[in-house]
């Protein structure tokens, strides 16, 4: 079982009140849970910056009628197959598709693939969501 350590934090009352409102909006049971998530988020950022193995999702929305767009997106994905763990393709309506890719590898390689996909002409919206393999977080 994990050993817990207690520590005190001094905060401006206004900042603490804002933090408590945030905790309430997000549904945290305690301040401790919220602080743990903030710390973990910063540790994930560190993982991405120091070249460790990382995990991410890339989400794109595009008009599949744009000339050669589907072929370009497929080509990028085939060239990056060593990073792509899984993909999901959804037909949103008659014109638009959504794709979600799960990637695992070095952060800089994942970021490059995301930038290429999101920057492809015809992609209407895209987002990279960076996360962690979880092995270093407690």
From TrEMBL:
<dbReference type="InterPro" id="IPR027271">
    <property type="entry name" value="Acetolactate_synth/TF_NikR_C"/>
</dbReference>
<protein>
    <recommendedName>
        <fullName>Putative nickel-responsive regulator</fullName>
    </recommendedName>
</protein>
<keyword id="KW-0533">Nickel</keyword>
<keyword id="KW-0805">Transcription regulation</keyword>
<dbReference type="GO" id="GO:0003677">
    <property type="term" value="F:DNA binding"/>
</dbReference>
<dbReference type="GO" id="GO:0010045">
    <property type="term" value="P:response to nickel cation"/>
</dbReference>
<keyword id="KW-0238">DNA-binding</keyword>
<dbReference type="Pfam" id="PF08753">
    <property type="entry name" value="NikR_C"/>
</dbReference>
<dbReference type="GO" id="GO:0003700">
    <property type="term" value="F:DNA-binding transcription factor activity"/>
</dbReference>
<feature type="binding site">
    <location>
        <position position="91"/>
    </location>
    <ligand>
        <name>Ni(2+)</name>
    </ligand>
</feature>
<dbReference type="InterPro" id="IPR022988">
    <property type="entry name" value="Ni_resp_reg_NikR"/>
</dbReference>
<feature type="domain" description="Ribbon-helix-helix protein CopG">
    <location>
        <begin position="6"/>
        <end position="45"/>
    </location>
</feature>
<dbReference type="InterPro" id="IPR045865">
    <property type="entry name" value="ACT-like_dom_sf"/>
</dbReference>
<feature type="domain" description="Transcription factor NikR nickel binding C-terminal">
    <location>
        <begin position="55"/>
        <end position="129"/>
    </location>
</feature>
<keyword id="KW-0804">Transcription</keyword>
<dbReference type="GO" id="GO:0016151">
    <property type="term" value="F:nickel cation binding"/>
</dbReference>
<keyword id="KW-0479">Metal-binding</keyword>
<feature type="binding site">
    <location>
        <position position="78"/>
    </location>
    <ligand>
        <name>Ni(2+)</name>
    </ligand>
</feature>
<feature type="binding site">
    <location>
        <position position="89"/>
    </location>
    <ligand>
        <name>Ni(2+)</name>
    </ligand>
</feature>
<dbReference type="InterPro" id="IPR014864">
    <property type="entry name" value="TF_NikR_Ni-bd_C"/>
</dbReference>
<dbReference type="InterPro" id="IPR050192">
    <property type="entry name" value="CopG/NikR_regulator"/>
</dbReference>
<dbReference type="InterPro" id="IPR013321">
    <property type="entry name" value="Arc_rbn_hlx_hlx"/>
</dbReference>
<dbReference type="InterPro" id="IPR010985">
    <property type="entry name" value="Ribbon_hlx_hlx"/>
</dbReference>
<dbReference type="Pfam" id="PF01402">
    <property type="entry name" value="RHH_1"/>
</dbReference>
<feature type="binding site">
    <location>
        <position position="97"/>
    </location>
    <ligand>
        <name>Ni(2+)</name>
    </ligand>
</feature>
<comment type="similarity">
    <text>Belongs to the transcriptional regulatory CopG/NikR family.</text>
</comment>
<comment type="function">
    <text>Transcriptional regulator.</text>
</comment>
<dbReference type="InterPro" id="IPR002145">
    <property type="entry name" value="CopG"/>
</dbReference>
